Amino acid sequence: MRAEAAQRVALVFSLLDANGNGVLDAEDFTLMGSRVNAVATQSDQGAKDAMRAAFDRYWTTLRDELDANGDGVVSLEEYTACVLSPERFEPTISQFAEALAALGDPDGDGLIERPLFAALMDAIGFQESNIHALFDAFGPTADDRVPVRVWAEGIKDYYAPDKAGIAGDHLVPRTAV
Ligand SMILES: [Ca+2]
Ligand SMILES: [Ca+2]
After folding, report:
1. N or C: which end of the chain has fewer CB within 10 A?
2. How far apart are the CA of 79 and the centre of ligand 2, in A?
3. Is residue 39 part of a domain?
C-alpha cells in the first residue's frame, strides 16, 4: 500500500469514529448519518434514507469483512485492511459515494455548489481548509460548481490502495504527511 493511501485511511478512520471511543462500531455510523443528513436541508426524505442505508451498509460490511478478532468492533489495524482488498468493498463504497453525491445535488442538475459541498464534508469532520483545497482540485466551473460525477469518482479513488497525487490527498492535513 502506498503511504498516501495509508494516510487517507487513517484520517477517515479517525473521522468515522464519531463517538470517539477509538474503534469503529455501529453507533459511529448512526451518529455520522444523522450529522450528514442534518446539513442536507434541501434534500428529500428519499435521498436522506439512501444516505442512512449507505452508512448502515458501510458498517455491516466493515463488521462482516474486517472484524478479524471477532470482538464486534473494528480497530484501525483491522480497518486498514479495507484498502488491501478493495474488490470486497467496492460495491459498499460505491453505494456510499452515490448516496453522498446525491445529497450534494438536491436539484438534480448534476452539479454541486461549494457551500453545500463544504457543509457535507464538514459534517463528516474534514477540516475547512482541506475541504476547499479538494473542491479546487476538482476544477470548479466559473460559477463555482463541480460535477457530482467527479466527486463520486473522487470518493472511490480515496480508497484506492495504489493511487497518489489524487484530489483526495488534499483532505489529509499537511502536518500528518
Ligand atoms: Ca467508535
Ligand atoms: Ca475487531
Report:
1. C
2. 9
3. yes
- Mean pLDDT for all residues in the chain: 90
Q: What is the CATH number of the domain that holds 7?
A: 1.10.238.10
User: Can you give the residue range of the structural domain that contains 156?
Assistant: 3-164
Per-residue pLDDT band at 174 (split at 50, 70, 90): low
CA of 157 to the centre of ligand 2 (A): 25
Measured CA distances, 46 to 36, 63, 118, 163 (Å)? 14, 26, 22, 33
- Residue 35 inside a domain? The answer is yes
The band of 68, judged by pLDDT with boundaries at 50, 70 and 90, is very high
Mode of pairing for the β-strands spanning 145-147 and 111-113:
antiparallel
Can you give the pTM of this predicted structure? 0.86
Residue 132 lies in a domain: yes
CA of 28 to the centre of ligand 2 (A): 15
Spell out the residues 6+ positions from residue 93 whose beta carbon is closer than 8 angstroms to its own.
Answer: 86, 155, 156, 159
CA of 37 to the centre of ligand 1 (A): 19
> In angstroms, what is the span from residue 133 Cα to ligand 2's centroid?
34
In-domain check, residue 171: no
Over residues 89-123, the pLDDT tens digits come to 889 989 999 999 999 999 999 999 999 999 999 99
Distance CA 16, CA 40 (A): 18
